[in-house]
Amino acid sequence: MKTRAAVAFEPKKPLEIVELDLEGPKAGEALVEIKATGVCHTDAYTLDGLDSEGIFPSVLGHEGAGIVREVGPGVTSVAPGDHVIPLYTPECRQCKTCLSRKSNLCTAIRATQGKGLMPDGTTRFSYKGKPIHHYMGCSTFSNYTVLPEIALAKIRKDAPFETTCYIGCGVTTGVGAVVNTAKVTPGANVVVFGLGGIGLNVVQGARLVGAGMIVGVDINDAKEEWGRRFGMTHFVNPKKIDGDIVQHIVALTDGGADYSFDCTGNVDVMRQALECCHRGWGESVIIGVAEAGKEISTRPFQLVTGRVWKGTAFGGARGRTDTPKFVDWYMSGKIEIDPMITHVLKLEEINTAFDLMHEGKSIRSVIVY
Ligand code: NAD
Ligand code: AHE
Ligand code: ZN
C-alpha cells in the first residue's frame, strides 16, 4: 500500500513529505493507521545528527496513537479496530528483563530496532524501490506504519487521539519517572531541571504523589508560568541568580533535594542535578538524552556521601501493562494533558513543530493526520 510520511532523508535537513510504499504486516505484526503523533525533543536530537543510533533515510516519530487496520499471522493480542499506542519500549513478557520484574527494558527486539529494522531484519517502508528505515520501532511520522504486536498497547476507545498520543512518550516518561523510577514519597522536596514537554510531566507527577517543594529550574523565564500551572512551587532561572545554582538549590531546600530530575539532556545540568541532592539520601534521575560522545562526571565523594545517580527510559513503564493505566489516569482527570498541547499541526507543517521546539515556543506540538 501507499502511505503519506515525513521522511528524514539526511541529518540537519527539513523533513520531506512524500508517498512511501509500505509492505503489509508479517507474522506477529500489525498495520496501524496513525491518527496523531507528538513531536518529542528526541526526534529533534536524532534529526540533528546527535544520536549515535541515528539512521538515514528514516521515518522518525515515536509518540503516536492510532487504530489497528490489519494483523499478520499469529497475532493474538490486538485485532483490527483496536485503538493502540505504539511502544518504543515493547513488552514481550518472555525475555529475561520482562521476567525479572526489575526493569521495563524489554530486549526481545531491541537489536533490530536500534538498526531501524523490523525483527526479521528488513524494512516495511520503501521509496522509489529503496528501503527507508524505521525509527525507535514506531515511525509515527507516517500515516500508516507496521509494528510487532509486542510493541502495541491496546487502549480504551473513548480517549481522543490528539491528546492521548502524548502518553506514547512525554507523559509516561515524566510521570513514570516520579512514580515508577524515583518512587517519590509524599512531602519530599523535588527539583526538576528543564520545564519542557518532559519536565512539566515530572512536575505534575510530583504534584500527583503529594511532593512538598516542587522546584523548577529553566533558563527560559517563560517556563515559570507553565511550571506553576502544573504544581511547581518555586522557580529558579540559573542565569538570573548570584552565584552557583547548586548552592542556591541546597539553600532553598534546606540541605538539598530529596529527588532531582534532569529533563534537559545537558551533561553539565545532569551534574548540577546530582550535586543539588541532599547529602546521605538524595536521588537524581537522568531523563534527558545526551548527544553522542558526551559523558557525565562528578566527584565520587558525591556518591560516597550517599547521593544516588540513576536513569529512566519511558518512565520505567511496562508498555502494554502500564500505558492503558496512564490513559485511564488522563481520562479520569488524575493527570492533565490538554493544556500542554500548545500546537496542533498538519503533517505538511511538521517542520514548524521542530522550529517551535528549538525556539522554546511550544510545550508539545501534535501532528494530526
Ligand atoms: P524540550 O525542548 O521541550 O524541553 C527542554 C527544556 O530544558 C526547555 O524548557 C529548555 O529551556 C530547558 N533547558 C535547556 N537548557 C537548560 C539548562 N542549561 N538549564 C535548565 N533548563 C534548560 O524537550 P523535552 O521534549 O522536554 O525533552 C527533554 C529531554 O528528555 C530531551 O533530552 C529528550 O531527548 C529526553 N527524553 C528522554 C526520554 C527517556 O525515556 N529517558 C523520553 C523523552 C524525552
Ligand atoms: N539512541 C540513543 C539513546 C536514546 C535514548 O536513550 N532513548 C530513550 C528514549 S527517548 C524517548 O524520547 C530510551 O528509551 N532509551 C532506552 C533504549 O533502549 O533505547 C543512543 O545514545 O544511542
Ligand atoms: Zn520521546
From TrEMBL:
SUPFAM superfamilies: GroES-like, NAD(P)-binding Rossmann-fold domains
Recorded catalytic activity of this chain's protein: a primary alcohol + NAD(+) = an aldehyde + NADH + H(+); S-(hydroxymethyl)glutathione + NAD(+) = S-formylglutathione + NADH + H(+); a secondary alcohol + NAD(+) = a ketone + NADH + H(+); S-(hydroxymethyl)glutathione + NADP(+) = S-formylglutathione + NADPH + H(+)
One GO biological process term: formaldehyde catabolic process
InterPro entries: ADH-like_C, ADH-like_N, ADH_3, ADH_Zn_CS, ER, GroES-like_sf, NAD(P)-bd_dom_sf
Enzyme nomenclature, EC number: 1.1.1.284
GO MF annotations in UniProt: alcohol dehydrogenase (NAD+) activity; S-(hydroxymethyl)glutathione dehydrogenase (NAD+) activity; S-(hydroxymethyl)glutathione dehydrogenase (NADP+) activity; S-nitrosoglutathione reductase (NADH) activity; zinc ion binding
Family under the similarity heading: Belongs to the zinc-containing alcohol dehydrogenase family. Class-III subfamily.
GO cellular component, one term: cytosol
NCBIfam families per UniProt: adh_III_F_hyde
Domain of life: Bacteria
Record keywords, A-Z: Metal-binding, NAD, Oxidoreductase, Zinc
Keyword Oxidoreductase: yes
UniProt cofactor(s): Zn(2+)
Full protein name: S-(hydroxymethyl)glutathione dehydrogenase
Function of the molecule: Has high formaldehyde dehydrogenase activity in the presence of glutathione and catalyzes the oxidation of normal alcohols in a reaction that is not GSH-dependent. In addition, hemithiolacetals other than those formed from GSH, including omega-thiol fatty acids, also are substrates. Also acts as a S-nitroso-glutathione reductase by catalyzing the NADH-dependent reduction of S-nitrosoglutathione.
CDD domains xrefs: alcohol_DH_class_III
Domain Enoyl reductase (ER): 13-367
